[in-house]
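Recap from last week: sequence in, structure out.
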Amino acid sequence: MPAGIAPDCPPAMNNHGLGAGFRRRIYGSPLQLIRDLWRLFRATRDILALSLKGRISADFRERIMLAVSGVNRCRHCAWGHQLLARIAGVSNAEIAGLLQQDLANSPDRQLPGLLFSIHWAETDGAPTAEARMALEARYGVRVARQIEAAALLINTGNRIGNTFDFLLSRISRGRCGLLISER
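Predicted structure tokens:
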């Protein structure tokens, strides 16, 4: 389990308000979820290409997943993608850094894609035109689309996981679903 990520249900309740301490990105309305599901549907080809050889590598894909999960602070995705990143050869030190948006240990050739992914998540899928053009200039249109598809895929998963945690924290009156930093 990553540093700062709480187990599912700690014995003590430190958050007395319903959802008062929850500070992660969630789906605030069904329309936001529908929007992202539609985006996923439109990006199906690029999402499927993420697992093909000759496109972005598994370690690059996992770095993107961790960086975006760090922005959204999704404990479920962070845990799962840490395991996949280790399998892909990413060091524990780099994994910890990626979850904090510290790219110091990341490969130089992947930095533009990682920075774009962080920007993508911070802007809720609305990166600046300049950022998108710079990404395409660096990697080409096909790879840039895959990087953006990876960011979309993990962002959607993050928000679903965080929304689940928000509801869990409300139902449990703060006993479950919160990160240590939210208590």
